[in-house]
Structures are given as structure tokens and as C-alpha cells.
Amino acid sequence: MVTIDAKGVYYKELNEKVKEAISSGAEHIELINVNGQRYIGDGISASAKITIHGIPGNDMAAFMNGPTIEVFGNGQDAVGNTMNSGTIVIHGNAGDVTGYAMRGGEIFIKGNVGYRVGIHMKAYQDKVPVMVIGGKAGDFFAEYMAGGKIILLGLGCEGESVVGRYCATGLHGGTLYIRNNFEERYFGKEVQRDELTMEDKEFLKSYLTRFSDYFGYDKQEILGLDFIKFVPVGSRPYGNMYAKW
Amino acid sequence: MALSYAVPNFLIERDESRCIDCQVCVRQCANEVHKFDEDDEKIVSDTMKCVNCHRCVVLCPTKALTVREFPLEFKKNGHWKSDDIKSIYIQAETGGVLLAGMGNDKPYPIYWDKMLINASQVTNPSIDPLREPMEIKTFLGRKPASLEIENGKLKTKLPPQLELEVPVMFSAMSFGSISLNAHKSLARAAREVGTFFNTGEGGLHRDLADFGDNCIVQVASGRFGVHQEYLDAGSAIEIKIGQGAKPGIGGHLPGEKVGPEVSQTRMIPEGSDAISPAPHHDIYSIEDLRQLIYSLKEATNYKKPVFVKIAAVHNVAAIASGIARAGADVIAIDGFRGGTGAAPLRTRDSVGIPIEFALAAVDTRLRQEGIRNQVSLVIGGSIRNSSDIVKAVALGADAVYIGTAALMALGCHLCQKCYTGKCNWGIATQDPRLVKRLNPEIGARRAANLLKAWKHEIKELLGGMGINALESLRGNRLMLRGIDLTEKELEILGIKAAGE
Lengths: 245, 500
Prior knowledge:
The complex is a heterodimer of chains A (245) and B (500).
Chain A: E1 2-5, H1 11-23, E2 28-35, E3 49-55, E4 65-72, E5 85-90, E6 106-109, E7 130-133, E8 146-152, E9 173-179, E10 191-194, H2 198-215, H3 219-223, E11 227-232, E12 242-244
Parallel strand pairs in A: 1-2, 2-3, 3-4, 4-5, 5-6, 6-7, 7-8, 8-9
Antiparallel strand pairs in A: 9-11, 10-11
Chain B: E1 10-14, H1 24-28, E2 34-37, E3 42-45, H2 55-59, E4 65-69, H3 82-94, E5 97-100, E6 115-117, E7 138-140, E8 149-150, E9 153-154, E10 162-164, E11 168-170, H4 180-193, E12 197-198, E13 215-219, H5 228-233, E14 236-240, E15 251-253, H6 260-266, E16 274-276, H7 286-299, E17 306-311, H8 316-325, E18 330-334, E19 343-344, H9 345-350, H10 355-368, E20 376-380, H11 386-395, E21 399-402, H12 404-410, H13 432-435, H14 440-464, E22 480-482, H15 487-493, E23 496-497
Parallel strand pairs in B: 11-21, 12-13, 13-14, 14-17, 17-18, 18-20, 20-21, 22-23
Antiparallel strand pairs in B: 1-4, 2-3, 5-19, 6-22, 7-10, 8-9, 15-16
Helix pairs in contact in B: 4-14, 8-10, 11-14, 12-14
């Protein structure tokens, strides 16, 4: 394991060090005293693990292709922006536009997430991105979502809606599993409820088990939670709004 | 069914004395205008379906066909023109947002035509480019404020630059909006001439993976086909904020155009709408733009110039200043004449400003702020010929993008129906029967010919001014004079009136 002290190190230099360590074969890199440095894991194609102690800056794991990043702290905005594959585990909250346009990989977040999370997530062939959020989500959750799966647990949010306003507006692909604790009026007209299938239940069991393991929750308790499944009404939400000039 | 008020837009005239009933027109028209009537044993034409793309006119072996405007005259009205009336009928019938293709076609002033180029007479000699050296090579990218030379060698480390043999690039047009054969034509032409084509927001098809040295890859709000290999493949990365044909709005590639190839290149499921949101949702400010610029630079180890493309809008100068300060290497500005595969008609025709003003305002502003060297300026959205380019360079552009003109080189006849997917010229379509009409080798030759011809004309115009390097013309507005312009227009363009 390679340990890099990020204290007072500018992001460009820090990321160069991380890339150097990976290209010289390090399988596990530990970053300590991280304090807002941006772009950690950005554009890295490798299978290394990066452990972050502190608060990484915006665009962590953007365009990432393979690594596992575990953050002992909060994530900021645009975690996993347009990522292709890999795993991100955040032992805290994550900011706005988490998972923007992600096409593959997994993001586990223990706490809450900000606005427009999961926006324009997509899926392609064997790539099906998955996001598991322990807490609640801000407004415009899963907006324009085009593929992938998101589980929203809303732990510790009893008595308040786990999603904000304009949830899933423009959604035209993918699946949402949302803890039964929300205001129906917050949902866009592009989504509808659907029955959980055996396949859904297997999927939930697998990812909720990992969620419990990562964050030290009682697995039985988590697996016992009720989820409502949402799917798109159609894959072409705006197909009929135009007239030919 | 209720009565439709629709009337034909075009009139098809068939000269029966010339027509030999060969049915080429029947086979060529994807809009199914021409049909062979078995009973009457003659070809009949449904004018309602005609889009005036000239495919049948051009291919008719006996030139028996003429298409002209349908001579429908509404009662004379100075305010309600025929298009205004027709659009109300369409919308009353459908309730739909009017969708159009290509660029703004309204008769707004064309400022290129109100600027005249200088030439040398007596006081300094003009240059003949056929026999004397003439340099029009162009480098796009951030230039340092000063250069350090040590032992005759450049010591300053230059930021990444794109090297262009001719100051013209093919502007962003996605595979999806145009066909693979159109993309192949432009890629090959760019390689042959020594310039660049741009993927648009549609990914880079695997057949074009070898063309990275002549390719700019685009990252737009939908992030279609954007992955590490794609970023690595291009010579530069363009963040698309907006385009001249539809500033401020996103795009939809309709599901029916997302076939297997488009699906694979965009990395989205077949048949699904490809929706590009209006903004990038990770960019709500100049600071956020900086974040994406540097995210892309980090992902490509600072080896590639990053372009930021915006539409020419009212505050373009201030926005461009922000983009330069956000760390972009090149700013691309698209004027309100810029084309597109599909745009809402009202946006296409009434949003944005002429590129001539936007270019002049941006160049002036960046010079005033002392940051002009930090970015290159590329403009697009109206360039029709080489003198437009020379005027653009004199106003301050480093290079230009051409889209509409490039497609015309491939055969586009500007019928503006790109969004129907039935392009009879094999350009704006994914229908394999239509796509194969465009031979990429012939397309590449035609597009390369256009650039070669323009390259020579640019040299002629430069020579006439007594200038032997394009660099000496950049921002040299003394080489332009205005005609038929107001004081204010001259002031914004930063040029004198003809005769001054």
C-alpha cells in the first residue's frame, strides 16, 4: 500500500502522484489529510483501490474506468461524473449531481445526497450503473434518467419525504427503488409504479447486503425495508410534441 | 377526419415530351412523391410530399423535372406573410412545436456582405501566391504571454496546440444527426487537407478510431459516447455549451434514429430517445465551467487543448472573457445562422445574434482585457466562401468552422428537412438505402476540393493585400471597410466606412 499525505498539496500535484503510483503498479493507495482536492481518480483506467481520508473535492472519479474509491468523509459535487466503471463507497453525504451521466459502475453513499442526483444516468449493454443512497435526495432526483438502477433508503428520514420536488422528471429509462416514505406529488408524470419481480428482489438483496456490510448496518433490518419500484412510462417522453415545418 | 388546410409548398412540373418513364425519380425519392400508375402507365407526382431537395431533378436523365415554389398567393397582407399563415394552420391542426432543420433562413442582414477587403496599390506591392511563399498554417491553443529562447531554441513550454494547414475545420455534427458515410467523408477530407472534423455529441464510430489525429471530440450535456478511450482518441476536446441554431436549448435525437450503429457509438439502448439537457447540469457558472475544463484536462493529462463552444448571444463578449479565464484553450462561437439537424423553428429563427458582431465584440473585449493570447477564437455559423473567412480573420478569428457548407459539398441541397431522417442525399439519415447514396470516397474528395479551392482563394486575397502570412491579417481590421452600415454597427465591428 502507498500512502500519500495530501496536506497542503495542490490537486494537480496530488493527482499526478496518484497516477504515478498506479502506473508503477500500486494496488492500494491511501490518501490522508485530503481537504477539497478536486478530480481524484479522474479518468483513471485501472483496477487499483484508492482510500481517501478527509473530504475530496468536486468531480471525484469523473470519467473513471475501473478503480475502487472509498471515502472516509463526505463527497462533494459531481462524484462519479460520467464514470464508466468502478466502485465508489462514501462514508458520509455526497453533493449535487452525484452520478451525473454515469454509464457503469457503482456508488454507495451512507448519508444524504444533494440536488439532481442520478441525472441522466444511462445503461448500455452489460453496463448498468447502480447507486445506493442511505439517506434522502434533494430536488430533481433522477431527472432525465435514461438507464441504470438507484436504491434510495431514506434511513433516519422518518417523518419527512426521502425525495425532493420534481423527482424523476424526464426519466425515460432505468429503475428507481425508493423507500416507501415520500410525497407522491413530488414525482414527475414520466414515471409509474411497478411490481417488484423476483429479479428485483434478488438485486435489492445483493446490493442492500453490500450496503449493510460497507456501512456497518444490521443486514436483517435493512433487508426488511419496503421499497416501491418506479419505471419509465415510456422511452420517448417527448416523442409527440413536434410538428414538421 | 377533419379538413386539413395544408397546401403544397412546391409545384412539380414534368415535361411529358422529355419523360421516358424510366422511374429514376420514383426510386430516388424517399418522401414517396413520385409513383408509377400501373393503370395509366405513367408517373404521377404528389406535390404535398415534395421537400424540394432536387434529388429527382438532378438525377433525371432527360432533365424532365422542374420543382418551383407553389404559386399560392394569400390575399396581400403586409403583416401576415404566407409562412405566418401556414404555421398557424399547422399548429392549429397538430398542437405541436414547429420543428425545422438547418439554420436561420430569414432575410436578416448579412454583415459579411457589408464589409469590403482592401488591396495594395502602388504604396506597397501585392504578392502573387502562385510564385511567392504564403503562410496560412494556423495553430489553435493558448499562447504564452512571452517566449523565452535559449541557445536559439524555444525554452518556454507551449500549451497544447492544434496545427491546421488551412484555417477551416468541419464543425460539430454528430453521427446520428448525419450518416456514417457523411462522417467518414469529413474525416477523410480533414486528414487529406490537414485540418479537423468534430464528432458532435454522438461519440466516435469505431470505423473512425484511426482518425484521432484529425478529430475533435465533443463533450455535451448528454455525455453520449463519452468515455476515457474517446477522450484519449481526439486531438482536442470541445465542451459544447450551445450552438447557433438553438441557443439555450438542448436536443433530442428521436428514438427511431437510434439504430444498432448509433446505439453502439452513443452507448445507449436502441430505440431510446437520446436527450441532451439544455444545460450541463454540472455547469451553472463560470467557476463550474472551469471545473469541467480541468476535469477533462486532468483526464487527458493536460495534453489536449480544450475548446468551449457557445452560441453568439447578447452578452457574448463578457461570457467569452469568463470562458478564457476559466481556462479554455479555444473559444468557438456559433452565430445565429448556424445549422442543425433539428431545432424548434422559433428558436432557430429568432434567438442569437449575427456572428460578425459577436466575433468583433469578443475579440475587442479580450484585447481590452489583455487576455486575447490566452485563447484562440474559432467562429462558425454562416461561412459561405473564402472571402467570408478572410473577413472573419481580419475581424479577429483564428479559424472558422463550416458545417452547412461542408454538407453542401457532400450534396446537401438545403431543403431543411434533416429532422425527418429521409435525406435523399444520404447525409442526414440513418436509412441504409439512403446512406449508401453517399460514397465516402467521393464525399471526401468533394469536401477536400472545397477546402483546397478556398485555401488558394485565401492566399490570393492575402496576396492582394500585400500580406504573406495569415497571422498578419488576424484582427487587422484596417483591411476591412464597411458599406451600408450605421455608425453604431461600424463601431461594434471596429471598422471604418468605405472611403474613410
